[in-house]
Specification:
The protein has 462 residues and is mostly beta strands. It has 3 domains: 123 residues, Immunoglobulin-like (Sandwich), CATH 2.60.40; 232 residues, Beta-galactosidase, Chain A, domain 5; 82 residues, Golgi alpha-mannosidase II (Immunoglobulin-like).
Length: 462
């Protein structure tokens, strides 16, 4: 909220980012030299197998690129841009849990078949049919997996709403309950155009202006991923204006669920009492969800943290314009992505937690040494209701710290398999103080975990 503090923090973060990038590149080089093979090596740092979309820069493969894995399977790729004999490509391939796979980059005789369709008023793939208005609002989402209409009749999803922000006290810290009494219209003349058409993804670009601000947003769908992304860039110059993205959904529930650190909490979707009225804006991490029996919708994000849910409308706060204590708060260029994830079943059955991690932690790509593609290989695998969150050297140098958590509010047995034979496994706390020893079986160990529980272990090699 104080400009000088943010200016100093920006310098610190720039140094941190530079150091982290150097460490990452060194680690990638080490992994590639040991496990590499092929024109491209792709690493998944999450603890489950994934089939998400990644991007890489490669030698120009022509107009119909294809990735070939060690087992001979072919994965279509899509050229995004070209420069100086190189091409930026997007691709979707199956990746192992917390591991890597090598790929050869080749040119196919013809573009791959796919399910994507893109027009200015419609996006479609094997999962969804999405209809857009001339202003870029979404007037229909048909979920083909259950012939389910996601938006209620007459509703508009991804409704980008501009409200008065303030001028009540502490405007930089609070969104007040009167904010939505005054809504501002966007300038006339929004444009909608197709910018990508498969075979990996398709996108429609919507451009809007309001006063001195400009918003450019790509609505993106994928051939293999059942997620709708809203990739957004904003030149924001407004004061005392609040921007939210609203999604009315055809789901009935009196409770919405929001992610917190290592868990999730429920909040009411109504304002029946005075204490409900003042709890409308909810701080959350990577997702919020509204589900009824058998179906629901999750709203994911990669950098925002303010949600509110009123009745059947999920909203995410994107930008604000407080004038005190920093008269330039939020002013400038913003790049952000949020995603809609319609799903069958509850958020736990749909693995909303995992899908949100995938949005926030894209697969890493690095140029390979050439030759035959390296087979898929996992460093760690996890079986059971837990996410492997951390693998790091112990602070005191004694072994490796492995930290997991239960994400869905359930319980069960978990088995972790490591890349080498284990010597000793000891349970410890978050500050790495040792507790009871856990039996190791070769290169694996097992343990029980409870609802939203965090488990940490010190591992040494045999």
């Amino acid at each position: 909220s104080i400009g000088q503090v943010y200016a100093e923090a920006a310098k610190d973060y720039a140094r941190i980012a530079q150091t982290a990038a150097a460490v990452r590149d060194e680690a990638l080089a080490a992994v590639t030299s040991e496990l590499g093979g092929g024109d491209l090596v792709v690493l998944n740092t999450l603890s489950w197998p994934r089939a998400d979309v990644a991007e890489a820069t490669v030698s120009d493969p022509g107009d119909a690129p294809v990735l070939v894995s060690a087992d001979g399977r072919k994965w279509p790729a899509q050229v995004l841009s070209r420069e100086g004999g190189e091409a930026r490509i997007a691709f979707s391939a199956d990746l192992p849990a917390m591991g890597s796979a090598g790929f050869a980059v080749q040119s196919a005789a013809a573009p791959a078949e796919h399910s994507l369709r893109a027009d200015a008023d419609c996006l479609e793939n094997r999962f969804f049919r999405i209809e857009l208005s001339p202003e870029g609002g979404i007037t229909r989402i048909l979920d083909k997996r259950g012939d389910r209409e996601v938006i209620p009749a007459g509703g508009v999803a991804n409704d980008l709403q501009l409200f008065q922000d303030g001028p009540e006290r502490e405007a930089a810290w609070n969104v007040h309950d009167t904010f939505d009494r005054r809504r501002y219209p966007w300038d006339k003349g929004a444009t909608v155009e197709v910018v990508e058409r498969g075979p990996v993804r398709a996108a429609v670009r919507v451009t809007r202006t309001y006063r001195e601000s400009r918003l450019v947003q790509d609505v993106v769908i994928y051939d293999r991923v059942p997620r709708i992304d809203f990739v957004t860039e904003v030149d924001w110059q407004e004061r005392q204006v609040l921007l939210k993205a609203a999604f009315p959904v055809d789901v009935r529930s009196t409770r919405a669920t929001y992610e917190v650190q290592f868990g999730a909490v429920e909040r009411p979707t109504h304002r029946n009492t005075s204490w409900d009225e003042v709890k409308f804006e909810v701080a959350a991490q990577q997702w919020a969800d509204l589900s009824e029996a058998g179906y629901g919708v999750s709203l994911l994000n990669d950098c925002k943290y303010g949600y509110d849910t009123a009745g059947n409308v999920l909203r995410l706060t994107l930008l604000r314009g407080a004038e005190w204590p920093d008269p330039d708060a939020d002013r400038g260029h913003h790049a952000l992505t949020y995603s809609l994830l319609p799903h069958v079943g509850g958020w736990d059955e749909a693995e909303t937690v995992q899908r949100a991690w995938e949005l926030n932690v894209p697969a890493l790509t690095v140029a390979g040494p050439g030759g035959a593609p390296a087979p898929a290989r996992s460093l760690f695998t996890v079986v059971g209701p837990a996410i492997l969150h951390t693998v790091k050297p112990a602070d005191d140098g004694r072994g490796v710290i492995v930290r997991l958590y239960e994400p869905d509010g359930g319980r069960g047995r978990v088995r972790v398999t490591a890349p080498r034979t284990l010597g000793r496994v000891v349970a410890c706390n978050l500050v790495e103080e040792d507790g009871e020893e856990v039996a190791a079986e070769g290169n694996a160990f097992a343990f029980a975990i409870g609802p939203f529980e965090i488990r940490t272990f010190r591992v040494t090699w045999g």
